[in-house]
Write a structure and sequence with these properties.
five-stranded mixed beta sheet, alpha+beta, about 130 residues, 4 helices
């Protein structure tokens, strides 16, 4: 077994700290990829991959990505919901990898929702 170097230990520590922050909920943005049967059939797996690729490219550590089941809007799949601290959630619909890239750059990184891809802002519940 090869001996660990100080650089190796630092990398292990950084990865562990990153994982712990995400598990404990330290985040600026939460992105929900809707992955019900309808979402998967419409391309939700590709949307998830595109999102994770963008996160990896930037090295962002303050973004949580999770999945959910069907949101009941099957004809708008694939969809994601972006939730930022101190902002209303935004549901994006009929996505592809290029749209996800723009949403990532504009909304997730800069805090500016991409209105042309958004179906709704705020909660879906009615009063």
């Amino acid at each position: 077994m090869a001996k660990l170097k100080v650089e190796d230990l630092k990398k292990i520590k950084e990865n562990a700290a990153k994982s712990l922050r995400l598990r404990e909920g330290e985040h600026r943005v939460k992105v929900v990829v809707h992955m019900g049967t309808c979402g998967i059939a419409a391309g939700a797996r590709e949307i998830m991959k595109a999102l994770l690729d963008e996160i990896e490219k930037t090295g962002a550590t303050d973004i949580i990505v999770t999945s959910s089941g069907c949101a009941g809007l099957c004809n708008h799949e694939p969809m994601i919901t972006v939730e930022m601290l101190d902002q209303a959630p935004v549901k994006y619909v009929k996505l592809d990898a290029e749209k996800v890239k723009k949403i990532f750059e504009e909304h997730i990184m800069k805090g500016k929702p991409v209105v042309e891809y958004a179906l709704a802002v705020g909660s879906e519940t009615t009063h």
